[in-house]
Write a structure and sequence with these properties.
triacylglycerol lipase activity, Pimeloyl-ACP methyl ester carboxylesterase, 8 strands, alpha/beta, AB_hydrolase, AB_hydrolase_fold, 262 residues
């Protein structure tokens, strides 16, 4: 467990296990706890790095404001420098997959192989871009609660493993702060993100959930893979498959890394 000062923020991170470095990047308003059970599985043969992205939970920002995808990617690169161990395996989930793609494009020397699991790249589908605009407009007009209701409907995540469980009362305030930061500071830049097509020549796998067909992030992942002339790889479960199928997900992850690593 440690902290790392980066430009404009202080990151909280943890390293579990030993072996090749594996960085897990959470999506949306999630923090390191999103990978708690899965990290135990992959830590059997990796040094697993989990962290709270800037602005979320224990990673405080110095000042409010929008945070670009490039800034999140630069944070991840600095974190990899801090923990050492050479180029790392990287799993990015949902919005973390978007950050992973930017990390690979901007800092290819840091990444041994990347699996971007259902990255919601809004720019590849017009209706998705419109859906994100609707979510953000609801947030500006009505606040966090109504906006998250629209978010769950637009993304198709209501009732899936990716929907965050109701936290205990003492954790509710922290969850609301994370949601506020996600909607106010993260979502706009995520919507504006456009993948650097050069990543297609780098060690990347675009992954989709076997049980999430039709959901927004599954559709964007398929469209993104097609735009890069890549074939999406199916992983167990749905958008949060690493929580419901940790062993099977870990096996598929190792296979995916092996198929592209350099």
């Amino acid at each position: 467990m440690g902290t790392l000062k980066v430009d404009g923020a202080t990151l909280h991170y943890e390293v579990t296990g030993s072996g090749p470095v594996l960085l897990l990047i959470p999506g949306g308003p999630a923090d390191a706890h999103a990978f708690a059970g899965f990290a135990e599985v992959v830590a059997r043969d990796h040094a697993v790095v989990t962290y709270d992205p800037r602005g979320l939970s224990r990673s405080a920002v110095d000042a409010p404001g929008q945070v670009s995808v490039r800034t999140f990617a630069d944070d991840a690169a600095r974190l990899l420098d801090e923990v050492g161990g050479g180029p790392a395996y990287v799993l990015g989930s949902s919005g973390g997959g978007v950050v992973g793609l930017e990390l690979l494009a901007a800092h290819p020397d840091k990444v041994r192989a990347l699996v971007a699991h259902e990255p919601p790249a809004a720019g590849v589908l017009a209706d998705v871009d419109a859906g994100f605009t609707r979510i953000h407009g609801t947030y500006l007009a009505d606040g966090v609660g109504p906006a998250m209701g629209v978010f769950l409907n637009v993304t198709g995540l209501a009732g899936t493993s990716a929907r965050m469980p109701e936290p205990p009362p003492e954790a509710m305030a922290g969850m609301m702060r994370n949601l506020e930061f996600f909607l106010g500071s993260m979502m706009g830049p995520m919507q504006d993100f456009r993948v650097d097509e050069r990543v297609a020549a780098l060690p990347v796998v675009i992954a989709v959930g076997e049980e999430s067909e039709g959901q927004l992030a599954h559709r964007t992942a398929v469209a993104l893979a097609e735009s890069l002339s890549l074939k999406p790889v199916a992983f167990p479960g749905d958008h949060g498959g690493y929580t419901t199928h940790p062993e099977e997900f870990a096996r598929r992850l190792r296979e995916a890394f092996a198929s592209v690593e350099r």
